[in-house]
Amino acid sequence: MTLEACTEALRQQDPDRFGAVLVADAADRPALVTLYALNLELARAPFQSAEPMLAEMRLQWWVDRLAEMGRGKEPPLHDVLTPLWEAWGALAGDLLPLAEARRRDCAREPLAGPEAVVSYVDATAGALMWRAAQRLGAPASSRGVVADHALGTGLAAWLRALPRLQPLGLGLAGARAQDVLRLAELARESLRRAARAHKLLPKRAAAALYPGPRVPRLLSEIASGNVDPFKETPEITPFQRRASLARLAMTGRWWR
Description:
Number of strands: 0
Distance between the termini: 38 Å
């Protein structure tokens, strides 16, 4: 029941956020590691059963535990919840919306169009990035900037995952090319807005705002029609991942 277990899970399953955590101040790492490890568990919970009702029961377990922690009740010994409690305490209750946002995944229903995807990304990737940035000193006045940046990076991640989401019934209903073009353009616009206002965020928050490798490039390729995300998206090579993280470590620049 240690922080090391969360760190190892992050290293194996979410290498981009794992790399960003290493760039953060040492004092901030436990909060980020446990937050991201929780996010992995919440994202996985709806897929632990093909039966929607059983999937929701598994997710409800996390909802109940986070609600209890918010009321000041220490969780049972657990690989993620125990270190999460040590790092967040009763503030873990504020993470409850991250679990609630995953309920729709239990039903395995595709999203109706770009607006539905935006709402889903706001509730998942957007809420996650805001909690991380807030913990790393982002002021309330910067919430709109973080929301824009999270939407841009979150849409890029969702589009990259679309070849896997579509067969699961969690992609886009109708599989219309104009919908992914619209999403790519929305993401690019959001990233541009965030970049223009980047000075509202403290340098300390850079690790929480890391967009991941090849985000602008992927969005450009989709917008130009050179990549069809319903079929496949370009793989990220180890070199590209290392180069992107090195840029973050050397410059602290999270915006594009």
